[in-house]
Each structure stands twice: as C-alpha cells, then as structure tokens.
Amino acid sequence: MSTVLSEITGLSQRDCFFIVERHKKVFDYPLHQHREYELNFVQNGQGVRRIVGDNVEEIGPLDLVLIAGENLEHVWEQGDCHSEDIREITIQFSSELFSSNLLNKNQFSRIQKMLERAAHGISFPVEAIMKVYHRLDTLATEEASFQQFIDCLMLLYELSGSEYKTLASSSFAHAPRDRESQRVLKVKEYINEHFAEPLTLEMLAGMVGMSPSSFSRFFKQHTNRTLSSYLIDIRLGQAARALVDTSQNISEICYACGFNNLSNFNRIFKAKRGMSPREFRQIYKKTKVIV
Questions:
Q1: Which of 165, 173, 166 is nearest to 54 (CA)?
Q2: Residues contacting residue 284 through CB under 8 Å, at least 6 positions apart
Q3: What does the pLDDT read at residue 108?
Q4: 272 contacts: CB under 8 Å, gap ≥ 6
Q5: Distance from the Cα of residue 197 to its chain's centroid
C-alpha cells in the first residue's frame, strides 16, 4: 500500500497564521496530512469531492472545513466540478499558537471545544459560512499583519459559536478522547480494545455497576449518542482504516472488525459512508501517492 504525503506548509516560525488565496480550475494536490491546523474555504466548487479521514462528501457552492488532527489525511478532488473559477482560501496555524493556559480561560472555551472536535475534521453549514464571509473575503488581502491576526481570532471565535458537523469517525482519526465521565471513558476504552468481539449492553453496563437501562440513558446523556451507534462508529472506523492501510480482502476486514455478516457490513458501510467498502478503497488508492 502507498502512504500519505506529509505536507510541509508555508507557515514560518515567526508567523501566527499562514493565509493564501488561490483561483483555480482544477484540484490536483494529492491526499495529504500536516502538523498545522487548517481552515479551508472553497467557493464555486460545487461537485468537488472532499475527503477527510473516512468521510467522503460532494461539496456545494460554499465549503468551509477546519482540520486540527496531525495525522488526519484529507484532500479536495476535482470530482464532478466544472467551474472555471474555483476560489480557495487556506488559513494554517500551529497547534502551539494557543497555550493550554490561554485555552483554559473562559473567553477561549468555545474555541477550545471547537479545536478538540476538529481533531476529527469539522464542516460548517452555509448559514455559518455566510456570517463570516466578510472576514474570509478580506483576510488574504489584509495588509496590516496585526489586523490580520485579530481578524483570524475573530473568525475562529465566530465559527466556534455556530453549528458544525464532525467528519471523520473516532477510530479512523485516532483523535484524543474528550473529557468525559470516568464510567463512559472506561466503556469506550474497552470497546476500542475489544471492538472485534461480541459486545452487549448488559456486559458493558455490568463493567460500571449499572443496570442496562440506566447505563443506556447515562451513555446517551453524556455523549449525545446511543451506545449501539458508538459501537458501529468504532467498528466502521477500524474497517475503513483497514481498507486504506492493508490489502486484506473485504470479507476478512468485515469479520476482523466485529461484524458477523458480510452483507450486513456492506449495507451499513454504504448507509454511513455513501459508498460500498470496495468503492471506498478505490477512492483512496487513487488519491494516495508514494513518498
């Protein structure tokens, strides 16, 4: 299997942000990853295929994504886009820009939460993009570097108060775990280590000394999702990672990731990823390069 390109970005050690605006007809940069955080805006790119981790989507006329995962591969592919003038604005900044002491202050709490979520990659709806469009529109041409810095901070702050959608699954992104209840963390850690084994609600509830019904409500209250959906997310993420990183056949991956029926695995994968496991593997083969 080929590997993912590790990009050396244009961010210098003496700058807080690296900002570049491009006008293009074609997306031809390969699947890649980098240490820096990245906010990427695409305008007039309807039909472009965006890949972030194991999330694959076709974007509309406006697309804005924040990626804060060092090992989270991503790419924008040409897909079915025929626009003659695609506008792209990329803002990159170091994970060390905000110290932990600063992020722990009340004024930065929203930004901290957003950056934690962005370890999986997050996308913003059109409504949120339109609210910050005026800042994006002028950032790349702002001549005063200090004002540019302030505008970038305001951009992150305004986005942190909007709705956003998580892209890559937990197990694919290898993102740090959120701060959660110790009982929830204990169950999540067990699932992450034993996802290939048969797991039941009764078994997992017993691990933390709760009844199945009580733990089911407790888990959803603390994670905003059901235990079964979390388990499927972990298994699908592991399966997606195996499709990308190994040459195992799909049947082997299915059973190795805890699914006990190949047709059911294919059905769930397509429902969650919008394509079959075979199609998903083919997309990654096309976007990876040997380095």
A1: 173
A2: 31, 51, 243, 244
A3: 84
A4: 232, 236
A5: 26
User: Mean pLDDT score of the chain, rounded to an integer?
Assistant: 88
Q: In degrees rounded to 5, what are phi and psi of residue 37?
A: -75, 150
Instruction: Indicate the domain borders of the chain.
Output: 13-170, 175-287
Name 39's bridge partners.
Answer: 66, 91
Residue with tokens 């200090």: 146
Find the angle CA(287)-CA(229)-CA(257) to the nearest 5 degrees. 55
**Nearest by Cα to 89 from 151, 8, 144:** 151
Helix axes 262-273 and 227-245, enclosed angle (nearest 10) = 90
Name the burial class of residue 101, with classes exposed (0-12), middle (13-18) and buried (19+) by CB atoms within 10 angstroms of its CB.
Answer: exposed
Top-confidence range, 105-109, 115-119, 173-177: 115-119
Indicate the burial class of 21 (C-beta count within 10 angstroms; 0-12, 13-18, 19 or more): middle
Superfamily of domain 13-170: Jelly Rolls (2.60.120.10)
Classify domain 175-287 at the CATH topology level: Arc Repressor Mutant, subunit A (1.10.10)
**Exposed / middle / buried, residue 198 (Cβ in 10 Å: 0-12, 13-18, 19+):** exposed
Per-residue pLDDT tens digits for 85-105: 999 999 999 888 876 677 777
